Description:
This protein has two helices and seven strands. By secondary structure, the protein is of the alpha+beta class.
Amino acid sequence: xxxxSRLSITVAAGALLATAAVTPAVANDDWNGSQSxxxxxxxxxxxxxxxxxxxxxxxxxxxxxxxxxxxPTTGSQVIRYAxxxxxxxxxxxxxxxNVDGNHLWYLLTDGTWAWGAARYIDNIGPAPRWC
Length: 131
């Protein structure tokens, strides 16, 4: 195997490991996948008296072009762009670098995991949970 081939494989493996290291893990309780049990011990009815946290939240981009980044900072790598009016899926929110008076950032899950400044994303429905 040539040195060039080995180098290419090493670079690809490193990129894969780096991606896996920054992709957030999801605990079972975040997904709220367990059914509730009534006092009699039988399984609860999903249609009644069951309040689950939504797995993903929705938002709409308000900036003409929003840079989605690898970390919740304006200096981090741009992963992709979202455009005004685009509906995005929000996994959770966290504190980060202040952007025009707002320190919240949303972790978006639209094809890639990327951080978007909450200053430029309006919630549709309930506010996202904390990461």
